[in-house]
Amino acid sequence: MSRQKHAFLFDLDGTLVDSVYQHVLAWKESLDMEGIDLSVWRIHRKIGMSGGLFTDILLRETQTEITPERIDRLRRNHAAAYGRLAEAGAVKPLPGAVELLKWLTDANIPWAIATSGRMETAAHNIAALGVDPNKVPVVTRDQVRHAKPDPDLFVTAAQRLGTDIRDAMVIGDAIWDMLAAQRARALGIGLLSGGYGENELERAGAYRVFEDPADLLRHIDEVAARS
Amino acid sequence: MSRQKHAFLFDLDGTLVDSVYQHVLAWKESLDMEGIDLSVWRIHRKIGMSGGLFTDILLRETQTEITPERIDRLRRNHAAAYGRLAEAGAVKPLPGAVELLKWLTDANIPWAIATSGRMETAAHNIAALGVDPNKVPVVTRDQVRHAKPDPDLFVTAAQRLGTDIRDAMVIGDAIWDMLAAQRARALGIGLLSGGYGENELERAGAYRVFEDPADLLRHIDEVAARS
């Protein structure tokens, strides 16, 4: 029997797909439509949480009244604006993302995707990565009770793979991914491709930080079990 | 005779006006139109240089052929895309920007604006700040030979105010502002409102880092001469 290989659990936006900045401006547009004035960089720093948690927090921080209708409207307007920006800007896989997933598959290292987004916005990106959700576990916000920074998404992804989360690597671009990794006792690997600073990821507990999936693949021996 | 007060030299985009993310996606669109594939976070990290220097560097880093026609096309397509995004997203002054400039004026502290942008894109933002370019020095890329991270923009702004750059504060959101400040022997004050991390600004030499103009105004006694 060979030793169990560490599973790789991936965040999606900003980690495998170059979509963070479009999400940021889509949230900006949605908040503007509600008359909620929030600087764009503050939205960027909250991205990567679930839509629900994210809007709750923004409304609380801006001391705006929170109603279920308003949160629903914010989410729908974000999805519409994102669809438009993603189409215009042609959201694509990040450099090395497709190659990294292929490398893991070829090396028989189990991997999965766990995203705070909902399937309606994630489906297009997953298709762009050439990932078949019937073969690879893809856990979305729709399927768990709590989203990041709670660890539920990654814990569920590990369960689907039949591996122990405490042996897994969590790869993400946001501090919420690194915090969720810590709470689940996984190791967090940070990527700069979502636009956060290296030090922000390290302070949130990143075990290692790389530029993007291509850079992680170049340094894969630093984190993956060698055969 | 009272002691000469330190001048405040401000960057514009991301420092006084909430426009960085729109510039980032506008550059993304412009580069896509030229078939140049570059991740959005890498564009974000180059923003705040001059348009010319910025495109030179991007083309060199992506190992794409650099021709004057191509650089001109990139710049024009960026300006068009930015105009569209800025209009849709209603680019506005950052929280506290108008109040901070008023406070400095009332305190008889000289201040000026020095931006890597050109007047064609900067004019709208300067108007939104309620700044009259006939009363306050506004130095744009059109008026100096070298843009950031060269210190020419800030040096020229200090000259216009009749103050010594070595007594000035340079307020900016990008590492290029902090590097330019160091080269001119001014003190750099970093703001997080352009979406860079605190540590990135500190590593580039920021003397102090605040969240945005409102946060700087709340802590103004830490950096401004008290009367």
Question: What features would you describe in this structure?
Answer:
The structure is a homodimer of 227-residue chains. Chain A has ten helices and six strands, in the order E-H-H-H-H-H-E-H-E-H-E-H-E-H-E-H. Chain A is α/β, with parallel strands linked by helices and 227 residues long. Chain A has a six-stranded parallel beta sheet with strand order 3-2-1-4-5-6, sandwiched between helices.
Keywords, please?
10 helices, 9% strand, 6 strands, alpha/beta, 46% helix, 227 residues, homodimer, six-stranded parallel β-sheet
Draw up the topology in text:
The structure is a homodimer of 227-residue chains.
Chain A: E1 8-10, H1 20-33, H2 40-46, H3 51-61, H4 68-89, H5 97-106, E2 111-114, H6 119-128, E3 138-139, H7 152-161, E4 169-172, H8 175-183, E5 187-191, H9 198-203, E6 208-210, H10 213-218
Parallel strand pairs in A: 1-2, 1-4, 2-3, 4-5, 5-6
What is the string of SSEs of chain A from the N terminus onward?
Answer: EHHHHHEHEHEHEHEH
Largest sheet of chain A: 6 strands, parallel
Shape of chain A: globular
Which class of secondary structure composition applies to the elements of chain A? Answer: alpha/beta
Largest interface: A-B, 32 and 32 residues
What fraction strand of chain A? 5-15%
Fraction of residues in helix of chain A? 40-55%
What's the alpha carbon Rg of chain A, rounded to whole Å? Answer: 17 Å
Oligomeric state of shown chains: homodimer
N-C termini distance of chain A: 13 Å
Low-confidence segments of chain A: none
**Overall average pLDDT of chain A:** 89
Q: Give the number of helices of chain A.
A: 10
Strand order of the largest sheet of chain A: 3-2-1-4-5-6
- Number of beta strands of chain A: 6
